[in-house]
Amino acid sequence: MGGVRMGKDPKTSILNEWNQMHACKNVFVTDGSCMTSTSTQNPSLTYMALTARAVDYAVSQMKKGEI
Amino acid sequence: MGNNTNTFDAIVIGSGISGGWAAKELCEKGLKTLVLERGRNVVHNKDYPTTNMMPWEFEHRGQIPVDIADKNPVVSRCYAFREDAMHFFVKDTEHPYIQQKPFDWIRGYQVGGKSLLWARQTQRWSDFDFEGPARDGFAVDWPIRYKDIAPWYSYVEKFAGISGNKDGLDMLPDGEFLPPIELNDVEKYFQNVVAKNYNGRHVIYGRCAHLTEPQKTHYDQGRVQCQNRTLCQRGCPFGGYFSSNSSTIPWALKTGNMTLRPYSVVQEIIYDDKKNKAAGVRIIDAQTKVVTEYFANIIFVNAAALNTNLLLLNSKSNRFPNGFGNDNDVLGKYVAFHNYRAHINAKCNDFTNVTTEGRRPTTAYIPRFRNVYKQETDFLRGYAAGFGAYRGIQHDTSGFGTELKDALASKDLGSWYVGSHMMGETIPKESNYVSLDANKKDEWEMPLLNINVEYDDNDEKMVKDFQEQMTEMYTKAGFTDIHVDDSKHAPGLDIHEWVVCVWVKTLKHLY
Ligand SMILES: Cc1cc2nc3c(=O)[nH]c(=O)nc-3n(C[C@H](O)[C@H](O)[C@H](O)COP(=O)(O)OP(=O)(O)OC[C@H]3O[C@@H](n4cnc5c(N)ncnc54)[C@H](O)[C@@H]3O)c2cc1C
Ligand code: SF4
């Protein structure tokens, strides 16, 4: 997991809170590479939830003309 | 820009668990979506060649032939790489990578990715997890908290179908559960012993993506109740467990908005300097090697963790000379994993008047209890554990001839055995990273991935603590013949391998 981690600060992370690239707004990464840390739980349910959430955001941004 | 046939509203790279969800959601919202998958198509039911085979119908009785095992040592270390499912795994020889430090990279390249193979264990995160890096001062703070993701957990759980029990635990939030899969008497006994002796330690029903009581939304997907066959890794004809193939991919297809293109290895994401955003992707056809470009307004990258790193590192442009989105040199770094090294097995001398009937696709789960509310050990974070009890027919294989045959034909039940394995959190560090090899490329013109990931002192301490704490818990339960084990296997094999049959196999070796 990790390598393309989420974070608040574009200086220290690749993705924002919507799994959207800080540096390129129309690219979203929602597999295990986005994980900032791993916790102890099995990860896939969290990938599913992050993905559905990111799509919802991406499409709403697209409709607003932001992407 | 491309022509019409190569232009879509959205592109999804990869069709595994996360890509399947991206496809479903984008298509349901009306976006014309291209799903690019590097492997072959695997159509639910149609492409599960072994799903209804009997054990004796397998040429090697389920085992991996020695020549295949010898040529593919990495994937052969995965418990699920057996004759019945080996066609869903990447063989080491087919897709090489470079282990700068030992790393067992287990992959599934096909429509559905690893969703066909996974062990289906599903737990929510809590704020103890999302707040972890900030509280304990490692990595960077998560930009989200539990409240941000909780409604989305509910949303995906209802569709996927998750069985479990509402346990009301702070560290493992409850979900939208279908009825749980029962624990057996010995597991319930251990549950009581732990509850009586410890504050904050719990043995609970495993939570997993199995339809114990399908709802309308599952029937609408063409899925029915799990039959407890535990042959899931072959692909389940009942759709009893969640996979992209049984659930999200056919759902997305039904909208009429999805174009699925198997055999499409995405080589890079193309950056459009004029528009300051991604224009699309370049693929190479895995079979014909023809290179094609596809364009879209939104791109979802779901190639699975390490392949996504590879793809982004390989996507270089004037704007992103060091890899796509990589303005800060963080890409490829802070890779972390789960530490699954330690196991503990023992004998339970009681409960000889009961046994179990049939199979079940999960066991018990012990949520993290170390360092939850505050730091209490000399290592950071903690571990969860799988726990299961099993009683089987015991054969004495020491004799010869008739004596041996009679012993093998006996149906006498042996003792109960219990087993547990740790699932430890590891700390993401800059020094655990992946990078592109400067020279070597694969058949599809992709640089090979260098993997540079290892355990550290924190992990060693955690292994020891798991062994000590579980030994204490087993001792309080009166279990005997306690055997702790540190497999010392390389990182990467943390693939959540804790279905009961797995450690039963281990037990057979031990006892
Ligand atoms: C044996 C086993 C047991 C597991 N048990 C559990 C468990 O109990 N619980 C749990 O939560 N997780 C478990 N996992 C992990 C789980 O399978 C993964 O977390 C999950 O599948 C990740 O989803 P994904 O979409 O990121 O990747 P995948 O499901 O791996 O899908 C990625 C897809 O992308 C494709 N792809 C890769 N590169 C490219 C490219 N360049 N171009 C086009 N396509 C590409 C691949 O072919 C693949 O189909 C287990 C894994 C294994 C192997
Ligand atoms: S245990 Fe359930 S999901 Fe797995 S193969 Fe069986 S019926 Fe299918």
Question: Any overview of this molecule?
Answer:
- The complex is a heterodimer of chains A (67) and B (511).
- With 67 residues, chain A is of the alpha+beta class.
- Helix content of chain A is 30%, strand content 12%.
- Chain A has one helix and two strands.
- In chain A, strands 1-2 form a two-stranded antiparallel sheet.
- In chain A, strand 1 (20-21) and strand 2 form a beta hairpin.
- The longest helix of chain A is centred in the C-terminal third of the chain and has 20 residues, at 44-63.
- Chain A is flat and about 40 Å long.
- Chain A starts with 19 loop residues before the first strand and ends with a helix.
- The mean pLDDT of chain A is 98.
- Chain B is α/β, with parallel strands linked by helices.
- Helix content of chain B is 24%, strand content 22%.
- Chain B is built from 13 helices and 18 strands.
- In chain B, strands 6, 11, 12, 13, 14, 15 and 18 form a seven-stranded antiparallel beta sheet that branches.
- In chain B, strand 16 (433-441) and strand 17 (447-452) form a beta hairpin.
- In chain B, helix 1 packs parallel to helix 9.
- Chain B starts with 6 loop residues before the first strand and ends with a helix.
- In chain B, 48% of the residues are buried.
- At the A-B interface, strand 2 and helix 1 of A face helix 1, helix 6, strand 10, helix 10 and strand 15 of B.
- Bound molecules: flavin-adenine dinucleotide and iron/sulfur cluster (SF4).
- Iron/sulfur cluster binds at residues 210, 226-232, 236, 238, 240-241, 361 of chain B.
